[in-house]
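Work package 3, deliverable 3.1, input record:
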Amino acid sequence: MFENTKDTIRTIRTAGKLGWAMESNWTDPFLFAIYSVVRPIASSLILVVMYYVITRGKTSLDLFAFIYVGNAFFMYVVNVLFGISWVIHDDREHYQMIRYIYIAPMKMYYYLFGRGIAKMVLTTLAVIITIAFGMLALKIPINLMTINYPLLIFSVLVGIFIITCLGILLAGISMVTAHHSYALTEGIAGLFYLACGAIYPIDILPVWLQYISKLLPLTYWLELVRRAILGKSISTTLGGYSDFQLILIMLGTTLVLAMFSNYIYRSIEHIARKHGKIDQLTNY
Amino acid sequence: MNYAVETFDLNRSFKLKKAKNKKENNNTPGKLIALDNASIKIHQGELFGLLGPNGAGKTTLIKILSTLLLPSSGTALVDGVDVVKQPDQVRKRINMVSGGEHCGYGILNVRETLWMFSQFYGIPTQVAQARIDVLLKILKMEEFAKTKIGKLSTGLRQKLNFMRGFVCGPKIMFLDEPTLGLDVQIARDVRAYIRTWMKENPERTVLLTTHYMAEADELCDRVAIIDKGKVMVCDTPGNLKKTLAGEAVFRIEVPLAANGMETFGQISGVKQFAYEHKSHLGRTELKFILHDESAISNVTEFLSNNSSKIVSLSKMEPSLEDVFVALVGRGLKDENGSQN
């Protein structure tokens, strides 16, 4: 048991180092730091400008804060999901190392998770920068003294786990697809953006889509993150639940997702091995 | 008897797209048979060669044994462990190196890459670093230890890939054409290291696939010749060559012949033949086995009648390639050779 834990930690740590080298080595550290700060702010400003143009500043600050915080944290979904699922394609097509990674005596889940750590760290930095920018430049009503930090940290950790499960599921699908994995990841992220209440309360969705929303752990994750930071919820659908109830629902749906992700990954891995697709170059 | 590798009636076929079927399949339309009831036994501590032309099924077998691919049917055991049922256990015992690749994480340097893989195999850092130092020295890569992979030549990358396989200290190593595309000196270093590595520990086993017969002859304790997925024969190189001891094996070079070689096999006294066009030299090389040496006059007469000037003619000691020609009726490189 202890050996297994040690092996797991070593795999994650080593894969994490590889992921970090890939994320940060493309330019010099100064340019990388500038890029890391400017990129998330620029991304958020797109939404801010759209918001002001559409509402002409007439809607409540509460809604703006709801949108801003949701959008900031949704960066985790886009970046980490892509960071994990793209590993298969990258290792197979670009670096042509997947056969050697695959036959190594380690669990691919941990390797994939490790490769995604760099994205998690960079996204955390981006989220902090975006929130800070929102507080200082856009006057988003966030009080650092009243943030529920235990709830925030717990939610972020569970959120990362949720996104990792989704990333591993998509990584499995990447084993049997070629360039489609890119579009698939973008498409899935887009669906979550629509259905999980990232930039509006799920109350405004059609009823049938609200049912789907309620099945997704990311919906509860975003709600809990907002409650931890803003101290309140503007969603009437989720507002009736206490924090504790939301945590339980999030953990329950996460457990189902984790089992589903594991099952799908294993099944597709078997199919890929059966059809010789693990290391098959498609030249996309 | 402890076997490092055992396969029993191993089959593997691939579905083909319709357009490719008619030319490439064996018997069954829409199917490429890569392994056809292949059964081999490799002893622990043995350096075993798997010889055959491109497409013979060598890489498919290695992929199955290294858990990258599932067989269509049959059983494959590595160190007594079933590759289908317990792939995780197999992976603890093996490693693989494929030749002729341009792989590697370009942003890592040589030492970082080797260290990273040692970690994936659970090797303590101190042991790994010592092993890396030895490998860098033996394979003359010390000066490139801190060079990023992206800046290495193809040959050096291949050398790195080779070191990657060995740094993890496997019990059983699969080498799939490890010297493919390497220059003579690097290939020599690689072969020398394989021998050294085997000598260090008598429990270590290597399965080497190659279509360089001389390489197999030089390195292997035993070889199996494989063609179209079938294991044709398996024995020591010496014993295989002895099967041709009484045969007259000749090599003739003639000016590049565009056609007419297919009828060579009809010459009286020619038992088997194979040819290879060497366009860069402007010559065609014919290797053939005669029932009797006296039949050589029939060959020279045939070439004379076909207005082919003989550039060189020599009688040869049988090689593994001649064994292959005798068995399958064509050379390793010609796809169209025929047999009598």
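The mean pLDDT of chain A is 89.
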